[in-house]
Amino acid sequence: MSITTSLDALSAGPTSNADSLHTHSSGLSRTLFTISAAGSAVTNTAAETSLLPSSGSIAGSKIIQANTLKVGNIIRVTAFSTWANNGVSSPLTLRLKLGSTTVFSHAITLGAWSWVYTFRLMADLVCRSVGSTGSIVGTDIVISDVGLTASLGSSVTVDTTANQTFDFTNQWGSASSGTSMQLQSISVEVI
Question: Which tens digits make up the pLDDT trace of 1-13?
Answer without folding.
Answer: 333 333 333 333 3
